[in-house]
Each structure stands twice: as structure tokens, then as C-alpha cells.
Design a protein that fits this description.
about 30% strand, five-stranded antiparallel beta sheet, globular, single chain, about 120 residues
Length: about 120
């Protein structure tokens, strides 16, 4: 799914005749074209879709939307690594990665602990 995501303009420069910005989307930083909103300034927020700033947005609305997107997991869906997501086994999610588990790995069975493990391995 492609979303229009609010982001804060961190830096603006012209590249090959095109006004470009570095934009922060709640911790994810991307390059964005500003041609549709040419008067956007550093520190302002914009709604961005597929790499183009489409409209200026007030800071409070931007923060609320980013918080909601993060809560719903939409920021990871929008900005996460598509190759990693495609390779992940069904049912694997970010919580598994945070717990130190490898994608697709299962916790060691209880029987594999202590003396029972030696018996099971014979």
C-alpha cells in the first residue's frame, strides 16, 4: 500500500534544476521532490506521496498522523525493507526481531534443557 505520509523538511537544495528536500518521517529520512510545493521551507511539514511533497501541513496534524501510522504499523509497511518483508516467514513480525530471534526460528523446546537434552541427543 502506498500512503501519503507527513514529514518534516530538514534541508533543501537544488539538484539539476529541481528543488529537493531531505525529509524526516518520524525517524525515517528520505529525499523528496518539492516541485509541487515550491515555497515549502526548512522546518515545515508536508504530506508526501511517492517521493513528491503534495501539500503543506501544520505540525500538530503531522505529529498526530505520524503517531497513528506508527501505532498501526503503517510506517514500517511504507518504509520497511520490501526484500526483508518478502523473505520473512508467515507470522514473523518486528517483535520477533526485537526478542533476538532470527526470522523463522523457534524457541528451544523445554525438553532440550538439562539432562533430558542429553537423552534426546543420543
Amino acid at each position: 500500500m502506498c500512503l501519503a505520509v507527513p514529514g518534516k523538511v530538514l534541508d533543501i537544495e537544488e539538484r539539476d534544476g529541481t528543488r529537493m528536500a531531505t525529509v524526516d518521517f518520524g525517524g525515517v529520512v528520505k529525499e523528496v521532490c518539492l516541485e509541487y510545493v515550491p515555497d515549502l521551507q526548512v522546518g515545515e511539514y508536508a504530506i508526501v506521496h511517492v517521493g513528491f511533497a503534495l501539500q503543506r501541513l501544520d505540525e500538530e496534524s503531522a505529529r498526530q498522523t505520524l503517531a497513528l501510522f506508527e501505532e498501526l504499523g503503517l510506517l514500517q509497511e511504507e518504509f520497511g525493507d520490501p526484500w526483508e518483508a518478502a523473505a520473512a516467514p508467515p507470522g514473523w513480525d518486528e517483535a520477533d526481531a526485537g526478542a533476538g530471534a532470527a526470522p523463522g526460528s523457534a524457541p528451544a523446546p523445554a525438553a532440550a534443557v538439562g539432562d533430558g537434552a542429553r537423552e534426546a541427543n543420543r
